[in-house]
Specification:
single chain, six-stranded mixed beta sheet, Metallo-beta-lactamase, Chain A, 9 helices, alpha/beta, globular
Length: about 375
C-alpha cells in the first residue's frame, strides 16, 4: 500500500561511512509500507533511534555550520557506458550518492553479450567509485529494461538507503524484480509521481533536490512508459543537473523544469522523439550528455540512437567550439539502416556521448561550469 508520509522539517545530517553530511530537511512524499503517523516537532537535540547496523543511514543532529557556496567542495557526476541504457552516479558535495537508473539486465535475451558486459562494467565501476560508501538513493526514471533492468544487481551488490520509482507497471517482471530486491535488503521504497512530487533526500540552501514531474501524466503515459519518466533536478550553488529519463514530446511540454539548467541528460538517448526546440528554449543547457549504445551494436541495432537532427540541435544551443564529431543516425528507418545512414556530425565541445567517449566524469564547484576529468 502507498501512503503519503508527512516528515517534519527536522534539521539533520546523514552519517555516511563515518563522515557527517551537511544539515538538511525532508519534504513530504509517498513511502511504501507501514502506517504514516505524524511525528512530533523535534528540538535541535533530536536523534532518531536507528542503529548503524539496521540502516546504512543514521540520523543525528548536525553540528556543522553552513559553508559558503563554491568553497572548494565539488559535485561530480559519472555517466557510465552501459550500451543502450542509462546509469549515472551523482556524488554530492556532502558525500552522499545518487544513482539515476541502472542500465539493463545482464541476462536480457535479445541483447546477449553486450548487455552482460555493460552490466558487469557498471557494477565494477560502482565498486571503484563508491569506495565502500552506500548509494543513498537509487532513482529509477521509468520501468523500461534499459533503465531498471540492472537495479536488482545494484541492490544486491551495494548498500542502498532509498529506492524511488514512478509507482507504475508494478506487475511488470522488471519492476517486480527491482522492488523485490529492495524489500529483501530492507531498502525504503518511495513512489514519486504527480500526486507525490517530494524528494526522498533532504537538501540545504546550497544543495537542493527537485523531482521534475508534470502536474498530471500526459495521455500518452497510458501506453508509453517513456512519457511517465520522473525527472530529477539537482542544484548546487550556481550549477544544476537535470535528469530526464526518456521523457518524450508530450511530457516535455508539461514539465516545469524550474528554469534553465547547467547540465542536461539528453532524454531518450538522443532520439528525435525528445529534446524539442521548445523544451531546449526553456532549459537553455550549457552542457549535455547523451547516453546511448554504439552504432549497430546490441540493442542500438533496433533504435539507432542518437539521431543527427538532435546532435545538430543540441550543438546549436550549447555553443562552444565545434571541435568534436558525433556519429549519429541520419536515415529514414532504423530497421532498414545502411552503413551510409550513420554520419559524423560536427558537434559542440560541450556535448558528450557515451558511445564516443565511454565513461564520462564531470565535476563542478558550484560555479556554473562542468569540467571533464
Amino acid at each position: 500500500m502507498t501512503r503519503s508520509v508527512p516528515i517534519p522539517a527536522i534539521r539533520y545530517a546523514l552519517v555516511l561511512a563515518g563522515a557527517t553530511a551537511i544539515a538538511c530537511s525532508k519534504p513530504t512524499l509517498s513511502r511504501e509500507g507501514g502506517d504514516a503517523a505524524a511525528a512530533p516537532e523535534a528540538s535541535p537535540a533530536f536523534t532518531d533511534a536507528i542503529a548503524p547496523d539496521e540502516s546504512p543511514l543514521a540520523i543525528v543532529p548536525s553540528a556543522l555550520p553552513s559553508l559558503p557556496c563554491g568553497a572548494g567542495h565539488r559535485m561530480k557526476v559519472r555517466f557510465y557506458d552501459v550500451g543502450q541504457g542509462l546509469a549515472a552516479l551523482l556524488e554530492l558535495p556532502d558525500g552522499r550518492h545518487i544513482l539515476v537508473d541502472a542500465g539493463d539486465s545482464a541476462h536480457r535475451s535479445d541483447c546477449g553479450d553486450v548487455c552482460t558486459a555493460a552490466n558487469h562494467h557498471l557494477i565494477a565501476r560502482l565498486r571503484e567509485d563508491l569506495g565502500g560508501a552506500p548509494i543513498d538513493l537509487l532513482w529509477i526514471t521509468h520501468p523500461h529494461s534499459d533503465h531498471i533492468g540492472g537495479a536488482p544487481d545494484v541492490l544486491d551488490a551495494f548498500r542502498v538507503g532509498a529506492y524511488a520509482d514512478n509507482g507504475r507497471d508494478t506487475g511488470k517482471a522488471e519492476v517486480r524484480r527491482a522492488r523485490s530486491a529492495a524489500q529483501t535488503h530492507g531498502v525504503s521504497l518511495y513512489t514519486v509521481d504527480p500526486e507525490h512530487p517530494g524528494s526522498p533526500l533532504g537538501g540545504t540552501a546550497e544543495l537542493t533536490f527537485t523531482p521534475i514531474v508534470p502536474s498530471k501524466w500526459p495521455a500518452a503515459c497510458a501506453h508509453d512508459a517513456n512519457e511517465c519518466s520522473i525527472g530529477l533536478r539537482v542544484d548546487y550553488c550556481a550549477s544544476s543537473i537535470l535528469f530526464t529519463g526518456d521523457a518524450e514530446h508530450a511530457e516535455e511540454g508539461l514539465l516545469d523544469t524550474r528554469g534553465p539548467v547547467t547540465l542536461l541528460q539528453v532524454a531518450h538517448h538522443g532520439s528525435e522523439t525528445s529534446t524539442t526546440p521548445a523544451f531546449l528554449s526553456r532549459v537553455k543547457p550549457r552542457y549535455a550528455v547523451i547516453s546511448s549504445g554504439k552504432p549497430k551494436e546490441g540493442l542500438n541495432r533496433e533504435y539507432c540512437h542518437p539521431r543527427a537532427l538532435i546532435v545538430q540541435r543540441l550543438s546549436r544551443v550549447l555553443g562552444g567550439e565545434a571541435s568534436k564529431t558525433t556519429v549519429a543516425f541520419d536515415g529514414l528507418r532504423c530497421d532498414r539502416a545502411k552503413a551510409s545512414d550513420w554520419i559524423a556530425v560536427p558537434s559542440s565541445d560541450h556535448l558528450w556521448a557515451t558511445a564516443r567517449d565511454g565513461d564520462i566524469a564531470l565535476t563542478t564547484t558550484g560555479d556554473g561550469t562542468f569540467l571533464a576529468q
